[in-house]
Amino acid sequence: MTPPWYVLTGGPCSGKTTLINELKGRSYSVFPESARTVIAAQLATGKNIEAIVADPLALEKLIVAHQQELVAEAPKDQIVFFDRGIPDNVAYLRKFGIPVEEFFTNAIQSVTYRKVFLLDMIEFANDAERYETPQEAAWLHTEITRAYEELGYEIVQVPIIPVSERADFVLARL
């Protein structure tokens, strides 16, 4: 039986973190985006974003390893929302022209989510952990969708509406 785990995903700047915070405020178990956590930790060591993304394979492996830690911590008997799922990394590997090697395939196969909520893109804004351009964000959005479709996940498209309504929309479709 698949645990009641749900992925909130979409390209950079689709409102995932804002929606995760809204769901957390409603007392749901949530897990933050691993890429942001990993990049923030690297920035804290004094590295700049260019140095962090200079070795995209190493970065993606760190991100997936962190995601696997979160999955190991996630309760299997309650609703959990993940800000991105492990299959999101396939889109990033494609962005960098890196083949999906066994490490990633094993990670993807090690977890199953009940449903994937794909958030429509909002207006692009940059921040310390976001290194993509608006064009790359749109391309990644498409590739993330494709990655989950290839794995056979049910994808629910979440429209651009106020965050509280987005939360209601998601919760009504669990």
**N-to-C series of helices and strands:** EHEHHHEHHEHEH
> Order of strands across the widest beta sheet?
2-3-1-4-5
Backbone CA Rg: 15 Å
Q: Please tell me what the overall shape is.
A: globular
Q: Would you write up a description of this structure?
A:
With 174 residues, the chain is an alpha/beta fold. The protein has helices at 16-25, 34-44, 49-53, 56-73, 88-95, 102-109, 134-150, 163-171, and strands at 5-9, 29-31, 80-83, 115-119, 155-158. A five-stranded parallel β-sheet has the order 2-3-1-4-5, with helices on both faces. Helix 7 (134-150) links the parallel strand 4 (115-119) and strand 5. Helix 1 (16-25) packs across helix 8, helix 2 packs across helix 4 (56-73) and helix 5 (88-95) crosses helix 7 (134-150).
